[in-house]
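Entry for the shared binder. Reason: the reviewer on the internal report wants the predicted structure included alongside the sequence.
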Amino acid sequence: MYKIYTLKLIFMRLTTAIIFLSFMQVYAATYGQRVNLNEKNSSFKDVLYKIRQQTGYDFLFDRHLAKDMGPVNISIRNASLDETMKTLFTNTSLTYTVEDKFVLIRKRQVALSGKSSESIQQTDVRGRVVDSLGNPLKGATIAVVIQTSSENKETGDFSMTIKGRKIAAVTDGNGEFALSNISKEAYLSVSYVGYEVYTIKVAANLGIIRLKPAGRLQEVVVNTGYQNISKERSAGSFSKPDMGVLANRATSTNIIQRLDGLVPGLVINNSPTNGKQQFLIRGLSTLATTEGYTNASPLFVVDGIAVPDVSSINPQDVQDVSVLKDATAASIWGARASNGVIVITTKKGGNNQKLRITYDAFASFQGKPDIDYFPVLNSRQYIQASRETFDPVSTTYTPVYNPALGDGGYSPDRQIQWDFARGLISAAQRDARLDSLAEISNLSQIRDIFYRPQILTNHTLSLAGGTEKYSNYTSLAYTGDQSYTPGNKNNTFKLNTRNDYTFNKWMKAFFIADLTNQRTSSNRAVSPDNRFLPYQLFRDGEGNNLDMSYLGYLPSEAIDPVEKLTGRSLRYNPLSNALTGTSNSNGLMARLTAGLTVSLYKGLRYEAVLGYVRGTNRSTSYDDNTNYNQNIQLLRFAQNNNGTIKYNLPNIGGKYGTSSITDENWTIRNQLVYDYTSENQLHQLNVLAGYEQQEKK
């Protein structure tokens, strides 16, 4: 019994403590809303701010009321919010009402017909909500707007904002609603899906509230190259990338490569050796080209004109991209669209727009390729394979060695094994020499000599603006591309301008000029391919370029007598030979487009487009008289007349070569377009009839 009594006693004490703590919390909560003020000549806003800090109530009032109050003198202690506000507004022209956690401050109203101002603060509200055609809107939401004010501590200003809405009613089938006991100082918010929100001050009879259709979201428009049609009216398969993401991609200046991952079904092969098979949308076409291969490239259309290539288009000048994929594209562009169509629209200026100057720049840095992942044998593996495959019985040394011009020599590991097979060295010497080669790796030299970090920089300066009848967009761009290969340079300069003219309400015209100048230069390329064995170093310990004559056209045994006879060096040194020649190219691409639109009748217009694309590229190359290939070619056509060399090619000076390529494309298109939309927006008709002629030179 004693233990049971003890447990009951402890339980009663614990219950008492909990009840006591609960009363303390209630008292604390009540006390937290008590106000203590002792202000002399304080501003009205400062007093309200201190009340807000102590009570948590927000205040709504016109800022002009603060000026009317003047300095405030108030001294209260442990007062409620209601007592504080009554004391504050004693002998003033202001009054207040409390709704939820908000205190609305306003001027006192003059009593009407002997009634006090408090008796006219609440009212019943009625109204009817309809659409723009007068049809009732069932289910429209009627909400009482809750407003609050906040103070900017830096400026001391109060701002009035909408903090929330209390749903008060929903319209019936006739669009009508009724509310009771609503403050005359409140506002009502009327909202309905697909319509703009309408806010109105409370009145007894609001009458008919007519809602306006909400401003449409920017409609998704598909550009087919001939016309723009809305997404829902496009019967074919198409894709439109996120232009914001595309513009911010700073890894390439090629607009198509920026589409990688943004267009479903678009496959981009970024391999540097894949040639023209780079973009794939709909698979391989079965139509072969004049070059003899199956074309997988889509058709490119820029500003309504088909162009052979879009690599010269500056991505910062692109406004919109549409990718057409299925038979609908072929029905528009014919067999050329069998691999899909990529339609690009460039930017233009805006009418009545002040001059806007934009500068955009980016730099992309990529480190050297990780050649440790090259799928090749290392030196030890290669030497082991060479030992296992060497067979001096089936292949003798004599027929392989032929001093005649055109036969190469043996690699160092093969030469060592042939020397042993011919009895020139012992087995121990052979093994020592081969083991020495197996310990050498040229990967670090390949990484340092043949590769460098790739740096891509782009700068674009654009200007846009216009008047009521004229608009212009112009951009200047520079692209510097430092490739992986040392000594290579690639600089591109661009000028793009578009001018739009509005002659009158029925005639418009535009002109686009896009000019690209690309200049490249390079030394004689040396690619670290499988010709260079994994143990073959390119430079010795002192930094001298090493001879690799066995890779040339002459075996080592034949070099000395030929050099003695001709007086020309026939030693093949890859690194030194790379500096004996240069290649340069200068390309100019011009894309000119002009268009005219004439309104003939309501909904009927005539459109004409003229496009001209011209691309020229002039390439030059020079090899001096120390170039290895130059000397070999010279000796190929030389004659040995009893020890006297007769050259049939010029043997003084270097070799200079030049080539020039020019492409021209003309496009002329005339079309009539008729657009009709019924007044009730239920019917729409679009008709296009046109003629297009193209010529390629």
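Summary line for the report: Residues 379-440+539-561 form one domain.
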